[in-house]
Amino acid sequence: MTRRLRRHRLLRVLRRALGWLEDYIYLGRHHVRGFLARADPAQYREGAEQQASPVVVIPGIYESWTFMLPLIEHVYGRGHPVHVVEPLGYNVGSVARMAGIVGDYLRQHDLENVTIIAHSKGGLIGKFVMTTAESAGRVPRMVAIGTPFSGSRYAAFAVTPMVRAFSPKNRVLRQLLVNLEVNHRIVSIYSAFDPHIPGGCRLEGGVNVRLESTGHFKILAEKRVHDIIDQVLSGATPA
Question: 0.70 exceeded by the pTM?
Fold first, then answer.
């Protein structure tokens, strides 16, 4: 191995380590912000544009809806009514049970032409909703950010069963993975290096957008992500 190659590999490792550190700083800061937030989710349900389609936001595991406030405020600022599903809590239930809660919310509020914007596990829940007969027709599109559609090989080493459920061998994940019918209506956005999902978040048949960045959490604040969401909400397909 040449000295130049060794230097290149060392720099790559250092960049990834720095990205990982920045990711957890973002995670901690926004968890605290969400905990201290006094926002009322009802205030986001009425969009400024009367004809704007509704958006339903689904956070990832161990994330409350307030963790998604930067995205919620961005979308609401574009005139769209934004719905959060408070009964999800910190999203620690099974994908199927959480999808049932989201489906109930859609029907109770009679929401149609919904765009789901989801982070991590939220994207699995969103796809489950899109493939469930009772709710499928209400959700024509989804933007999934950092979603482990193929699972994560790290899940097998997790302490909690909620995280071990992200194993590529999980029955529900395997069922969702082989169901390709709705994939073309899903935009999957992910980092070039996600420390939690080493296999990446590429979705077969979906619209895949790989960003030249690192991290699993701080990607939520990237302008490119917000631009893609704006494109999807306007009816365009991101490049």
Answer: yes
